[in-house]
Amino acid sequence: MGDLKLSQPPVFPEGFLWGAATAAHQIEGSPMADGAGPSIWTRFAHTPGMTHNGDTGDLACDHYRRFKDDVRLMRELGLKAYRFSISWSRILPDGKGRVNQAGVDFYSQLVDELLANDITPLATLFHWDLPAALDDRGGWLNPDIADWFADYGRVMFRALDGRVKRWVTLNEPWVVTDGGYLHGALAPGHRSRYEAPIASHHLMRAHGAAVQAYRSEGKHEIGLVVNLEPKYPATDSAEDAAAVKRAHAYMNRQYLDPVFKKSYPAELRDVFGDAWPEWPAEDFELISSPIDFLGINYYTRSVTEATNSYPLRAGAVRQPLGTYTETGWEVFEQGLTDTLTWVKNHYGDIPMYITENGAAFFDPPVADGDRVRDPLRMDYLQRHIGAVKKAMDAGCDIRGYMVWSLLDNLEWSLGYSKRFGIVHVNYGTQARTPKDSARWYSKVIASNGGSLADPLPY
Ligand code: BGC
User: Fold this and answer.
1) Can you tell me the distance from the alpha carbon of 122 to that of 293, in angstroms, rounded to the nearest whole number?
2) DSSP per residue, 137-166
């Protein structure tokens, strides 16, 4: 078991939101049902060679048709909260203009079902599945997207704000631009050092525009979700220290400085070279529209060394000895405590949620008919929940923790090859089997963290 050094007893505050997260394209399936339009992910996955094994989201976990069963499962596990995302092109098949009521109804029914089961919904407006019709107009490279996104937000706020009290604008703008516009491994598959900072900036403008729309339409809370990955130097050389600063500016500060400090980190000029644009001051007024909370997705750290390699001068990753997940990410829970305390010290005392944390590990086959033994995932979660508690003990205002993910699901370009779920999904039969980690997590929730002090059951 992990070296937790928790305060005794490791009990979390009353009302702490224990939950699990998913995203529309990764679980729903039926992407074109009931009048929906295509998203860039439907197109991308149907382009030969873009995803592992040619896997698509056409069926995924069939959650679109099975959502009631899935909510029942959440209830059985004792989840207090569920973070899901809304598919923009179900709501607006052309990305803007005409609203598809059947799409709105789907999320409305999901929310009703959650509330009827005492599960608090957290809704994310954008988790990567941009309407293809908007990509045809330039997608995140078109400055008009800030207005398109705010208009879409307004439709959802009007429909659901009476029932959804926590909203997220964007999920992980860094991944959208790094994967979608710089390296091309994710939709829309572009590879351009020149496009990436433009896409980033319009993502952040869209975030700000949606927050402003929320202030006139909504009554509750809205925030942003970023993935943060702390950077540690590979050696104590001055070159590695400088590389850490650049990598940290590129991956972490690029999406927080403009929100909290109205500017981009100066290092980004160095990272992007001549591809780094200047932006008007009023853009930063929009981007820094006050948010109610920050959502943090945390998976790993990176150990950084200096390199000048193309396309960016942001440092290279060196892999130290340690335990690695099936996606090649080092298990390093101290990085989560460090990240949360860094946010507090650097940006102020904003309420935070851990909106994603989890791991893909090779799960042995479903054994004994109803059991999936996943001790490594249990160990990962125990360490990281402990790391959250450490940050809380150090004064961070953390309101909830969501495991990524409720279900095994479509891991984007990696298809169904990586399983992050605490619930196993048999993609042939769609049978759901809670893994040992889910049963363990249920006890953590029921004891409000108290059972974290117990040894893991293996
Ligand atoms: C994303 C998820 C993804 C997970 C694991 C996060 O970057 O928000 O959609 O499945 O990490 O890679």
Assistant:
1) 12
2) TTGGGSTTHHHHHHHHHHHHHHHHTTT--E
Measured between alpha carbons, how far is 224 from 284 in angstroms, rounded to an integer? Answer: 15
pTM: 0.97
Instruction: Check pocket membership of 172 for ligand 1, CB cut-off 6 A.
Output: yes
Active site residues: 172, 356
Which residue in this structure is represented by tokens 């070279």?
273
Task: With respect to residue 180, please indicate whether it lies within any of the assigned structural domains.
Answer: yes
Contacts of 426 (CB under 8 A, 6+ apart): 366, 432, 433
Domain that holds residue 425: 17-453
Helix (H, G, I), strand (E, B), or coil: what is residue 330?
strand
Is residue 284 situated within a structural domain? Answer: yes
What's the full length of the chain, in residues? 458
CA 299 to ligand 1 center in whole angstroms: 9
Residue 296's CATH number: 3.20.20.80
Helix (H) or strand (E) holding 123, with range, is strand 120-126
> Would you say residue 3 lies in a domain?
no
| Ligand 1 atom index nearest CA of 225 | 8
Decide whether any atom of ligand 1 lies within 6 Å of the 42 Cβ: no
pLDDT tens-digit series, residues 247-275: 999 999 999 999 999 999 999 999 999 99
Reported as a single tens digit per residue, the pLDDT across 224-245 is 999 999 999 999 999 999 999 9
pLDDT digits (tens, 9 = 90+) for 34-67: 999 999 999 999 999 999 999 999 999 999 999 9
Residue 328: inside a domain: yes
Ligand 1 center to residue 371 CA distance, Å?
25
